[in-house]
Design goal:
Layout lengths: L6 H8 L4 E5 L4 H18 L5 H28 L6 H14 L4 H10 L5 E7 L3 E8 L5 H16 L3 H8 L6 H15 L6 E5 L4 E8 L10 H12 L5 H11 L5 H9 L2 H14 L10 H29 L3 H21 L3 H13 L2 H7 L3 H13 L6 H7 L4 H11 L4 H8 L12 H17 L10 H6 L5 H22 L1
Antiparallel strand pairs: 1-2, 2-3, 3-5, 4-5
Amino acid sequence: MLFTDGKTYSDRILKGEDVAFSLKFVDEKSLLMINAILVKILSSQGNIFLLETLITIIREIVFNAFKANLKRLYFIKSGVDLNDKEKYNLLMQNFKDDYLYKLNEIEEEITAQDDYHIQINFKKTENSLKVTVFNNVTIIEEEYNRIKTRLEQSKKYQNLADAYNDIYDSTEGAGLGLALMVFLLKNSGIGVDNLFISPDTKGVTVSVTIPKQLKEESIISSVKKKVLDDVDTLPTFPENIIELQNLCSRKDSTIDAIAAKISQDPSLSADVIKLSNSAGFVPGKRIMTIKDSVKIIGLKNLNLILTASAAKTILQNKYKKFEVIWEHCIRVAYYSTLIAKSKQLGAVSDSAFTAGLLHDIGKIVLMSADDRIIHTISEITRNKQLRSSSILEEISVGISHAEIGGLIAEKWNFPSSLKLAIENHHSPLNVEGEFKELTFSIYFANMLCGVEKNKYSYYYIETDILEWLKINCIEDLRSFHEKLKTNYANQMTVAG
């Protein structure tokens, strides 16, 4: 199975039971169990917005505990005392290559040993949820001092990029993880004072308590101010687009009249034809004229294509980096359409292409705000194997590209379905009711495109979305993905 159902555990936790399980080896499947538990608990409490924050924090704690266990097993295997300061640094230089980067090769060796394990405990009370991670290692003084120093350092920074540059240690790697947790705890309102690290003779316990009543704490950066100012100064849609959209909405409008109006603008004409072909309204056949576009795609779809075209033109004129993400947006748009069609979601299929095209409009604005921060976010997302960059944007800049996209959608009066899909394309479980299926389609398409670029793993995909699609195993997921890639390549050949 691709994912494990955490329903049994989460039901017990929600009843107030103290639930714990042990691991000797940590892989994506075991982390998915934790994800599944958190999803169900947070959903029941109405705190699903904390999901990305908690998943990132708990994963960091669990993997750090696992890494501490691996380190001890590596030193034992090498015949070196962990307290031998002279040999410690020398051995740590080889630790990553010999152990940390070869987890698949050493899994059997690790699971066979009985000396070290990790225990994860969940405890819910009326006012909080407490997650505790214990590993039965005796921490040495040098390790504990390093953790305390980095924790105190991390609390002083107001910018994650600065913390990353100052305290990142390529040998140990723990500095960045602690900085990340501190920023997440501060920005989410959970609070840094709810993170506890307690060593004793039995091992090390790290716990996070998530209070029911969160603190309101927000990091307002100069980059966020620039981003918000940029959104405020974006021009409204051109008059000719507004007139065309009104024409599409009128019952007495004719195809000839609409086609003639579009044809007056050569740039818009080219955009409409290209986007209509990219959307694959007639698979395997190229749309050649504006009149064909209007007849084949229909007035509702034309209205959406006009929205996408106008947004593209405004952003392209204002931001030089627009082209960097446009190919990705077209691919997400096409995948989204096929996903919606595979679920036979007629109305959703009509909007999926446009929502996919526009899902990253906020990223264009953010990318143009501060190159240094965006580069750091990209590097941390890759190094820490985070599920998306949005959570880092929120704690580094004070606002995510998805949220920026939502603000732009609101400024341009996008339909509610488009606005929700754009601002939740990294957090689909936030959307319920009639618009959730469009958001699910955009999210899944975006994740698959991220897998193709090695940004994500299949295991990063929300299990609830896979259940919605009735995908139960990795083989089915790969097969579905391959069909999307093949169809996209064929359609792009036709579209030219």
